[in-house]
Amino acid sequence: MNHLKINHFKCFEEADIYINRLTIMAGANGNGKSTAIQALLYLRQTIEHCGESQQGNYILNACNGLNVPLNGVYCLALGNSSFVLNRNYAGNILSLGLFNEQEELTVDYSADNREAQLWLTPVEVHKTETTDFPILMHQFYYLNAERVGPRINQPLQFSDYPNAGWQGENTAQLISLEGGYFKIENERRFEKTETNFLQDQLNNWLDFVMKGVKVKVESSPKTLTAQVLIENQFTVSDPTLSTNLGFGISYVLPIIATGLTAKKGSYFIVENPEAHLHPSAQSKIGRFLAMVANAGVNVIVETHSDHIINGLQIAVANKDVANDLVTINYFSYKGGSVQPDVQQISLSEKGELSDWPSGFFDQTQIDFAELFNLRKG
Questions:
Q1: pTM of this prediction?
Q2: pLDDT tens per residue across span 129-139
Q3: Do 106 and 224 have their domain in common?
Q4: Closest C-alpha among 71, 58, 42, 50 to residue 139
Q5: Fewest CB atoms within 10 A around its CB: which of 7, 27, 49, 336?
């Protein structure tokens, strides 16, 4: 198991956050979940910006004098250097990194809190002789919470490897160009289906999440666009534009497409996979992400959905993913604390949670109790 190291970055003074094969970031708004994701994304941006590409991986041995922008890449919108320095910290050096018992890769950054610069300057790299973290792979997948909604079509764009884009903007291209010949490995194949081509497996999993829903994707090299057409129980054999069927399908499609195509061993980070989904679909997308993790992809999920957690528990109890591959990090505030508290929650082989702290997806019970008391009164 790896740890994400965050020192003097935003709301964290010093924190080590567990990163497992499947890692859930949960907790109330404003308690550090997004900051943890941003720390990982900014470290990745630094590796791409300042490292060297070598045989399918990035190498970051030393600083090369380049500044790393705080905004733009991976949808980051961190503002300026005065916003990213921890407010209780009097210095100007912050650190982001990954480590485990054998390896470390940490970058120290200089952050000027007076001139409010739009970048940070890497000043030192701390690393062991060998490093083999997933963040160093060329393939890296991230889906922002604010994904692209229904569109009549999407533009075709160059990419170094097949991916859906940071906001799902390349989903139609990914499916149309890869769907007919990209073969899904057996670990990600839906149940006992015969064909393993992306287009077919995508529709099998989509039907699992949203019963009766299928997609057909076409691309046009002449117009440099790709188009998603959707079929459901009301449009059988006559698929319609995605703009006619709401946001849910468009929001979940890049998750399924990425989960099926992400390279084994890489990172797949997805924010709010529950967005615009019915509770049943939320639970099932949790089970899908568990399957992806079990197939060897390092999945990190930020969520506010108890249904996602329920789906994850079912996946563990059903042995779709080993319980020791799953970690839930619960972010909360404890009175008087100078930074968020991050509590690690594990799962038993039967899908039972090791802890259920106050505020952890207990609002339903709280509301039922209040409603019961109101009815009594």
A1: 0.95
A2: 989 999 999 99
A3: no
A4: 58
A5: 336
